[in-house]
């Protein structure tokens, strides 16, 4: 066996060396299959099969496409159930195959068992379609192949594989544009091509693409585009396996960097080589997604032909075939390109239509380049596009259809620049074009009843908004200038103004759209980085928006934008901050006073109403509130004030630390209140506890009472995404006070932790900004941007304590693997320029340290 193993290894290395010289992907895959066949047949000589049995290859190995570290899927086919002697032979054979160093996946079945399992499991049926003889009784393999072909029902198989694909796509968020896709399983990956080939084989059309062309399901232009994409994916998967030294189909960030080096990409106009690599990936994924959809629909039409009564003429250009829109003359789109937009608009008008026919999709894709500069200048085409955007049902489905068919990128050249554009900011998980469409999708969702449970304010506001299409245009342009260099908000506003001028929008609508694009980050920045208890901050933001209409539009776009970055970025505490800024600014723009006394009184009245259920006397409440001070009532909303008062009014002077926890709305995070005698390193100790428990601090409010007690409030989320946060409440309430009973002990060392894999692949250069608060003496505002890592907040807190800087407020904004934090600090020492510079250096060093466990 050692000789067979060494020969297999040598032949594999020779095949890979030839691949390195010639870069022929399918030649390598076939060569690896052949050398594996040779090794298996040599093994069968030393460890023979039971009498009458056969060894067959299935899966990718069966079709002669063995990637460098893929599973070697084999079927041991028995003529009859195995006897004890047969079982012993099989055990020796399988052990010998494992000894070859193969990643073996095997099954042992009789012909009858194969029939039965294939009838009940489409996965087994699919694997047996790839069955290929390797050794033993070839007639037994042929017999099973013939039986399976007779048993297979093409229609049933088609429906089962289509459902299977839908489930697989859902596991990958139904998008080919994720930033770390799986080149095999993600939508637009290799599996989408293989599924079509299985379906065409089951339908009797043939398995090879040339057979599909011959049957009229593809023309030569489409075939060449599809083959380029297929070969690109095969090469990528080969390179991934070779770089990883194992089976690896995920195009992870660190792999993207290494792949770009292998492919020889170089930076162009500030774009990383890995970005250029991935833009090519998304091009291929888009082609595969389109042809997967087109061919699957064509196969459905072939397997389930429409009766003559299912064909109806709409007008001189369009007809319906089985309730799908079709073109009467395929060349009409070439002769009259305006029909491309008319078809999209017609689909919007006819909600009863189920989609486009395969022939229609093919004709539209082939005519996409007719949407050129001359087309865009024609007023009737601009009016058609605006008709699509203004449609009462919304433009999302139309825009997605246009994007899939390549029409949107040709109609809007500025959109074409961001197709497949990556975002290496460590919190977006989609390409720019996909993110834009997801933002529009969230805007449309706000109008539905589904939004009531998690976006009630957005739902109410959008239902009252008279022209939602203006928000769609703002969403379409808010990130359209990314990757151009410079401020993408300003550049995008310029592009949006040009679009509005070309499409004859009125001055009022134009100014609103331009404002939204230019300021689309402002509400988020103020809500998540500034002190919303400060009336000056609210007034600053009100001066930016100026009108209630702009405020509402910006709120809706902001919430949709954050939700469209990643399924994990939005949570209830962010929603509460953004809602609070919206409501306070709305009050101010409505003419209500925003002075401190009015706000304090409003918060106290609302908290008193909430406390009535606790049967708390006014005297008990007032004794506790007298210790809190005006700043406290400015910083906290009524719910927090009532919660704190209910738990703490009986123990205002307790020397024992108190910790209380409650879940946020919808369970998206836990709020932790800490009440303890204040000391310089208290905040650092609290952060150390959270870091040890792998709880990520999302927000911190720091308050010191008039009698020297700290009343701090934190929003925390589990680092690991663990859903069992509620079950941790008892342990936090018990263990956190115990951890804080350590006054006078030496400080703990800094946490030694690395940034995440993503942050290491695309490192962020830490940035800080320290500025004096002109309104409050000795108060400073520290803003920072850095890659997140465990214990970072504790290490920062230690730095604050080392420089005798008191923390008054912390706004912790965690965006995936990136943090954008703001702190309000109090320190007389920072008035000294040298002390200030030393403090800034220390903070930067804390952020820059890549400490390893």
TrEMBL record:
Uridylyltransferase (UTase) activity is inhibited by glutamine, while glutamine activates uridylyl-removing (UR) activity. The keyword Repeat applies. CDD domains: ACT_ACR-UUR-like_2, ACT_UUR-like_1, HDc, NT_GlnE_GlnD_like. Its cofactor is Mg(2+). Its EC number is 2.7.7.59, 3.1.4.-. It catalyses: [protein-PII]-L-tyrosine + UTP = [protein-PII]-uridylyl-L-tyrosine + diphosphate; [protein-PII]-uridylyl-L-tyrosine + H2O = [protein-PII]-L-tyrosine + UMP + H(+). Residues 432-554 form the HD domain. Keywords: Hydrolase, Magnesium, Multifunctional enzyme, Nucleotidyltransferase, Repeat, Transferase. GO terms for molecular function: [protein-PII] uridylyltransferase activity. Residues 671-751, 781-853 form the ACT domain. The keyword Membrane does not apply. Residues 1-313 are annotated as: Uridylyltransferase. InterPro entries: ACT-like_dom_sf, ACT_dom, HD/PDEase_dom, HD_domain, NT_sf, PII_UdlTrfase/GS_AdlTrfase, Polymerase_NTP_transf_dom, UTase/UR. Pfam families: GlnD_UR_UTase, HD, NTP_transf_2. Modifies, by uridylylation and deuridylylation, the PII regulatory proteins (GlnB and homologs), in response to the nitrogen status of the cell that GlnD senses through the glutamine level. Under low glutamine levels, catalyzes the conversion of the PII proteins and UTP to PII-UMP and PPi, while under higher glutamine levels, GlnD hydrolyzes PII-UMP to PII and UMP (deuridylylation). Thus, controls uridylylation state and activity of the PII proteins, and plays an important role in the regulation of nitrogen metabolism. Has four distinct domains: an N-terminal nucleotidyltransferase (NT) domain responsible for UTase activity, a central HD domain that encodes UR activity, and two C-terminal ACT domains that seem to have a role in glutamine sensing. Belongs to the GlnD family. This is Bifunctional uridylyltransferase/uridylyl-removing enzyme. It comes from Mesopusillimonas faecipullorum.
